[in-house]
Design a protein that fits this description.
By secondary structure, the protein is of the alpha/beta class. It has one domain: NAD(P)-binding Rossmann-like Domain (Rossmann fold, 3-Layer(aba) Sandwich). The protein is 35% helix and 16% strand. It has 9 helices and 9 strands. The termini are far apart. The structure holds nicotinamide-adenine-dinucleotide. The site of nicotinamide-adenine-dinucleotide has 25 residues, from helix 1, strand 2, helix 3, strand 5 and strand 7.
Length: 261
Amino acid sequence: MKLLVTGAAGSIGSVLSRGLPALGHELRGLDLIPQADHNFTLGWLSGDCLDPAVADEAVAGVDAVVHLAGTPHEDSLPAALESHVHTTARLLEAMLTHRVSRMVYASSNHAVGRTPRSELLTTDVRPRPDTFYGVAKVSAEALLSLYADRYDLDITAARIGTFGGAPTTARSLSTWLSPDDAVRMVDAAVRSRQPGLHTIYGVSANTRGWWDLEPGRAIGYDPLDDAETHGGRVPNRDEDRAEAAYVGGPDATHLKPRPAF
Ligand SMILES: NC(=O)c1ccc[n+]([C@@H]2O[C@H](COP(=O)([O-])OP(=O)(O)OC[C@H]3O[C@@H](n4cnc5c(N)ncnc54)[C@H](O)[C@@H]3O)[C@@H](O)[C@H]2O)c1
């Protein structure tokens, strides 16, 4: 499939740019910064998703949009909304213009970060953000729901846990999303033919995981990696118990300084 990857120079985008072509996809990259590698056979755009001309050029002619662009941590509320909600709106509008009906969105566990740990975290828990970043992800998911319902778009909102080469904390033994599973997840989501909005947890098949993997499996995402294979290298820390209390870990637990409005 022809895919636009936004935020393509970032940590997840770089991994997808290597993994998705191997599965038969052709990629176009969009990022604020110059091209990071040579896997973008459909070209590279250096620009801001917020710019309607950039969004328009980026979306034209693709089969699906993989929207990763955004600041992946806490920010002021206006900045967080711009980074996650406004960019998503720009791309959705461009998708309507160019009749592109499929998007995979990088949402976050912080959309439900203040949810206390339970036996199994399902995807139908109420929105419960732990930060302005989480508020922006909840808002972006609401926007995706509106467009999916109103315009018959097929969208996967993946609430990603902790992406990285390996888990580094006790919490991430539960929340880790491996690079290979990230590629499997996006591949499954763009190929899924199930209509409407699907919310899934973007995590690997971690032995210590407590987030429901079934909604992902229902769209064809079958994670294969397990953080436990790295378990022996993860140090014990005093914060581990507190970080396990809420879905959002340290962001939900500590009284972080609130960014100025
Ligand atoms: N990394 C994680 O563990 C994790 C967890 C949950 C959710 N996410 C989400 O996944 C997405 C990607 O995360 P990442 O870790 O790769 O982040 P990253 O910071 O490594 O990459 C994000 C990229 O987006 C680009 N970007 C930002 N704003 C842009 C804009 N307006 N227009 C064009 N490009 C823009 C940046 O230049 C950067 O290269 C983010 O939306 C983040 O919120 C990540």
